[in-house]
Amino acid sequence: MNSTPLKVSLPGKKQATQPRHTLKHLPQDQDLVMRIIPMPSDCNVNGDIFGGWVMAQVDLAGAVMAWRIVKGRLATVAVNEFVFKEPVMAGDLLSFFSKVEHLGNTSVTVSVEVFSEQLHNQGEYRKVTQASLTYVAIDARGRPRSIQKTAVKKTPGKKATGKANAKPKLKLKLKNPTPANR
Questions:
Q1: How far apart, in whole angstroms, are the C-alpha atoms of residue 108 and residue 103?
Q2: Per-residue pLDDT of the chain (182 residues; tens, 9 = 90+)
Q3: Whose CA is closest to 108, among 117, 116, 99?
């Protein structure tokens, strides 16, 4: 891993530097589920890509992995973790890697890591975002349904089920709970 300075400038402030970590290889223990190039229309006034745009892309990338497991309709039910590690610029090539972290009876939790490659630094990658999301399999009426665990594709070197991959217990209180989600 190389460490080159990343200049951070704020209006009216003296420039500071933070370490910028570059990698020579993308992950081999995860699935590449999506690649995209953000455009200038996706930028905020500072020239960085909107965090909300990145979040939407991460949700889509996580859904690709979950969809492979669920084999049908699904819904995002939780964003367990979301970390912006470095800014993303227009024109960066973003690669989204995902793997199954936990498989339940009706839900699947996946992790997503996003790596950026710049045109002028091809072959060097920066991890810009990491997240953990939970999706639930739903039927035609939008109610949770069981996942067939025989259809699970395991990421090399990782288990899709078991205590070693147990997710943290998160509680969500609903205003109007129905029998299906109590």
A1: 5
A2: 444 443 433 444 444 444 467 767 787 888 899 999 999 999 998 888 999 999 999 999 999 999 999 999 999 999 999 999 999 999 999 999 999 999 999 999 999 999 999 888 888 899 999 999 999 999 999 999 999 876 455 554 444 443 334 444 444 444 554 454 44
A3: 99
Residue 113: what residue type? E
Residue found under tokens 């989600």: 181
Give the predicted TM-score (pTM) of the model. Answer: 0.71
> 120 is written with which tokens?
């002028």
Q: Is residue 60 packed enough to be buried (19+ CB in 10 Å), middle (13-18) or exposed (0-12)?
A: middle
Sorted by where each starts, the structural domains of the chain and their CATH numbers stand as 18-150 (3.10.129.10)
